[in-house]
Amino acid sequence: MTHTPADQHTTTPTPAELREQIEHTRHELGVQDLADESDGKARAQRRAGELKKTALLKAGELKAHAVKTGSQLQEKLPDSVKEKARTAAAGARRVWEDKAPEPLKQKATQYAQQARGNRSLLLVAASGITVLWLVRRSRKS
C-alpha cells in the first residue's frame, strides 16, 4: 500500500520535531552510545577519572594502613629504643644545622614546604607507584 499526499492527514513536521524524532531514533538504536565509545578523548577522560578515584581510594587505604602499622610499631618499641632514636635524630639535626651549606638548607626548606603544600598529589603519586609495583610483582609470581 502506497501513501500519496492525499492519504496523509498530518502536517509537515517542524525542524524541532524532526530533531526530536532523530534523537529518539538514535537513542533507540544506541547510535549515541556507539558514537561515545568511538570518541577516544571522551573515553580517555572517563578512564582518567576512574583511575583518579581508584588512586585516591588506594591512597587513603595505604595511609590508614601506614598509620596503623606505625602506631603498632611504636607501641612495641621499648622506651630505650625510642630514646636512642630521639637522641640520634637530635644529633643529626645539630650536624645538619652546623655543617650544611646555607644554600642547601634554603633549598631543602623550599622543597619541604612544596611537599607539604602538595601532600595530596604526592600521596596519589606514591600510591600509584605502589599499586603499579604491586601489580608487576604479582604478575612475576
Task: Please specify the SSE layout and strand pairing.
Layout: H1 15-29, H2 31-38, H3 40-76, H4 79-99, H5 102-117, H6 119-140
Helix pairs in contact: 3-6
Structure commentary:
By secondary structure, the chain is mainly alpha-helical. It has helices at 15-29, 31-38, 40-76, 79-99, 102-117, 119-140. The protein is elongated, with a radius of gyration of 31 Å.
Short description:
This protein has 141 residues and is mainly alpha-helical. The chain has helices spanning 15-29, 31-38, 40-76, 79-99, 102-117, 119-140. The protein contains 6 helices and no strands.
Provide key terms for this protein.
141 residues, mainly alpha
- SS class: mainly alpha
Number of helices: 6
| Quantity of strands, as a count | 0
How far is the first residue's CA from the last residue's CA? 70 Å
Can you give the helix content as a percent range?
Answer: over 70%
Q: What sequence of helices (H) and strands (E) makes up the elements?
A: HHHHHH
Q: Low-confidence segments, ≥5 residues, pLDDT <50?
A: none
Strand portion, in percent? Answer: under 5%
If you average the pLDDT, what whole number results?
A: 81
Q: What characterizes the major β-sheet? A: none
The shape, in one word, is elongated
C-alpha Rg (nearest Å): 31 Å
